[in-house]
Specification:
228 residues; mainly alpha; 10 helices; 0% strand
Length: 228
């Protein structure tokens, strides 16, 4: 299980890098940059509300289990680090709340039929019943699909507000990294930068990756204990 989570995490980070590189390369041959800039101009004409609109779209996409990694990178690319991170956190809040509440109150039987007999889910459910928000926060650091797990947590006994707080805190480190990568890619496309900026950017990414690796090792140990 731990090796699987580690490989998924490595794949997800590699996927983010490939997506960003692909975006930069594609921008050389296709009007992708023009499309993104047009979206950015359209969003920015609403001022701060543009980031709010993006966050709502992000959240609804998560409810429908659309992969959120490209949207996270695009938020940084379009809005920069601060506003992009705000949009992503808003989207995470909407997606986490939506999936949780649907599973708990609207489609509980349907979701329960899908996972109710899963031994690993039963173990995690038991761990959450014992340690609550701590387990949710640690599990949110693991590289598992965001949209799907929102529904699974709705079947557990955790209180809604504790679940929301744990989700936001647990997912923050990785999303800071991905939003930063998107913002850094935008600055790279806009024009040549001073070499020192690339060095600082690389150090920033390395520091964030180191923090995420440490946190995920802690979370993996917690998940392993929960599954025993």
């Amino acid at each position: 299980m731990k090796e699987l989570l580690k490989s998924i995490g490595t794949f997800k980070l590699a996927l983010a890098g490939l997506f960003l590189i692909g975006l930069i390369v594609a921008a050389k041959y296709f009007p992708i940059l023009d499309w993104i800039k047009a979206f950015g101009v359209w969003s920015q004409q609403f001022g701060f509300a543009g980031a709010v609109i993006y966050g709502i779209v992000f959240g609804v996409s998560a409810i429908f289990m659309v992969p959120c990694l490209p949207l996270t990178l695009l938020a940084g690319f379009t809005f920069g680090l601060a506003r992009g991170l705000f949009a992503v956190v808003l989207g995470i809040a909407i997606g986490a709340a939506g999936g949780f509440l649907i599973a708990r109150y609207l489609a509980r039987d349907t979701v329960a039929q899908k996972v109710g007999q899963n031994a690993r889910f039963a173990a995690i459910d038991g761990a959450i019943a014992k340690d609550g928000w701590k387990i949710v926060g640690l599990l949110r650091m693991l590289p598992v699909p965001f949209g799907v797990t929102n529904y699974l947590y709705g079947l557990t006994a955790i209180e809604f507000w504790r679940y929301m707080a744990a989700s936001l805190v647990g997912m923050l480190p990785a999303n800071i990294l991905f939003v930063y990568l998107g913002a850094f890619g935008k600055r790279s496309i806009d024009g040549p930068r001073h070499p020192l900026e690339y060095v600082m950017g690389g150090l920033m990414v390395a520091a964030l990756v180191a923090v995420i690796v440490v946190l995920r090792k802690i979370a993996q140990r917690a998940a392993g204990s929960a599954a025993v």
